[in-house]
Amino acid sequence: MSLALRVTVVCGLIACAMTGMLGGYFFFFARSAINAHADDQLIGRAEHLRQLVADARDVQDLERQSPTFAVLLGASTDVLLLRRVGERAFTEVNPAGMVVPAALTAVPADRGMTTRDVLRTTDGPRMHWVAGLARVGQGGTLVEVVTGHALESEMRMIDESRFQVLRSTLMSIAVSVLLVYLALRHGLRPLRRVADQAAQIHPINLSIRFPEHDVPRELKDMVTVFNAMLDRISLGYDRLSQFSADLAHEIRTPVGALIGQTQVALTRARSPDEYQQLLESNLEELGRLSHLVDDMLFLARADHAMLDIERAPLAIADELQGIADYFEGPAEEAGLRFSIQGGGTAVANGPLVRRALHNLVVNALRYSRPDTTVRLIGEASGSGALIAVENQGAVIPPEQLERLFDRFYRADATGPRPSDASGLGLAIVKAIMDLHRGEARVSCSAGGVIRFELRFPG
Questions:
Q1: Could you give the CA distance from residue 379 to residue 429 in angstroms, rounded to a whole number?
Q2: What angle do CA 427, 428, 433 make, to 5 degrees?
Q3: Is the dihedral of CA 84, 89, 93, 96 positive or negative?
């Protein structure tokens, strides 16, 4: 069910409830008003008859005025009885032969009638009755005046009111639902425009963005979030495309070397020493391929959270000293030296931390200026631990710093990559920190001091 239809149904139910309540209120108000008007007329007629009885000289005078009393009745089915208390009526106007209810009580002669004195009967025709006592002349005979009114015209008015209220209620509901639906159709047009633009987005055209200037305020936040999401998707897709091209390039180089060397060897017969040299060279290239595949497999498993790492307290100073001892020889050959500062304990996975430090130190040895110091720093606090590797090299622009952890990315794209570099070392460092729910950062000062930080949570 569409959103417009859902809201229309809900608004229709609300309109049905509200108009039904209003219609019911007006109907019951009109019915009460009609009944109250009929009671007032009946009481007024009865009081007028009581006054006529009081003005008469005797009972015989009342009997002679019976035709006049009939004229005072409101309808042909109304009832009028004049009788002495406890006797038969000496004046009776009752064309329909209505039976006076036994529960009818006469109002005393010294009190006026009110609506509380009206008796309503529903057996047969709906009737309203009222009775009152009056004395003929001054201190004469006590006469009971009984009047009854059949609510024929009033019931027709009530039935007509019921029909009109029901009809107007249904018409109001229908019109309200139609207007709500049309308003929603018009109001949801921005959503349809967004959907039409979203349908044009595909992998070869990720530059389309939703317009934010002509959308309703309620949709502006959603459109802004969608555009930001499209920016991230476009950036990720570009990086994925670049990654695929770099991966193909990295694999093509050793595969091309293997094919070329093998083709050259097969052009003529070779000596055992030459074949051995060929196999050693091929083994070196295959080792590079195997290392590349291992790195890619590690990154793939890390991306899909397939690695369940174990953490334990790790002495930072011991780890830094161990990595410095391991790279002492290569550092001397490159004219570099190590400096270890700080210590503390980090809760982390030992082998993964050593692999991350290994990659950072290899990167520092590869790109440091000769006769400089590679600083290994460790800090620990209640909120976590920090391990940093600093070296002095060429200044890296800020736009390149943001991409150093991308796979196969090189800040110096024009320069040759070392033969033992796969371009995945820093990407693996970032993946290791993601597994630790930590963070990998890099910064570069104006003097060329490059600092890689590994921040471990507590």
A1: 18
A2: 100
A3: positive
Comparing CA positions, the residue from 387, 372, 240 lying closest to residue 323 is 387
C-alpha–C-alpha distance, residues 243 and 144, integer Å: 111
Q: Report which DSSP code applies to 122.
A: -
3-state secondary structure of 144: strand
CA dihedral 64, 67, 71, 75 (to 10 degrees): 130
Q: Return the amino acid letter for 201.
A: I
Q: How confident is the model at residue 89 (pLDDT cuts 50, 70, 90)?
A: confident
Q: 402-423 pLDDT, tens per residue?
A: 788 887 776 554 444 554 556 7
- pLDDT bin (cut points 50, 70, 90) of residue 75 is low
**Distance of CA 450 to CAs 374, 389, 441, Å?**
10, 8, 11
Residue 292 phi/psi, 5-degree rounding, is -65, -45
The tokens describing 452, both together, are 């890689």
As beta bridge partners, residue 78 has: none
CA–CA dist 417, 420 (Å, integer): 8
Under 8 Å between Cβ of 164 and 143: no
Q: Which residues pair with 129 in a beta bridge?
A: 119, 148
* Phi, psi for 234 (deg, rounded to 5): -65, -45
The CA distance from 303 to 301, in Å, is 5
Q: What is the spatial distance between Cα 129 and Cα 83, in angstroms, rounded to a whole number?
A: 16
Tell me the average pLDDT across 97-118: 88
165 Cβ contact list (under 8 Å, min separation 6)? 23, 24, 26, 27, 30
Which has the closest alpha carbon to 434: 314, 313, 316, 298? Answer: 298
Summarize the confidence of residues 353-374 as an average pLDDT.
91
pTM for this prediction:
0.49
- Residue 147 β-bridge partners: 80, 130
- The residue with tokens 């009971």 is 144
Give SS3 for 221: helix
Phi, psi of 374 (to 5 degrees): -95, 115
Amino acid at 304: H
Length of the chain: 458
What token pair was written down for 309?
């790492």
Best CA proximity match to 345, nearest among 311, 373, 384, 376: 384
Q: Which two tokens stand for residue 165?
A: 């209220």
Tens digits of residue pLDDT in 185-223: 777 777 777 777 777 777 777 777 777 777 777 777 888
With residue 445 as reference, give the H or E element that holds it. none
> Do residues 407 and 299 lie in contact, with contact meaning Cβ atoms separated by under 8 Å?
yes
Q: What is the pLDDT of residue 386?
A: 92
Q: Would you say 208 and 44 are in contact if contact means Cβ atoms under 8 Å apart?
A: no
* 54 has a pLDDT exceeding 80: yes
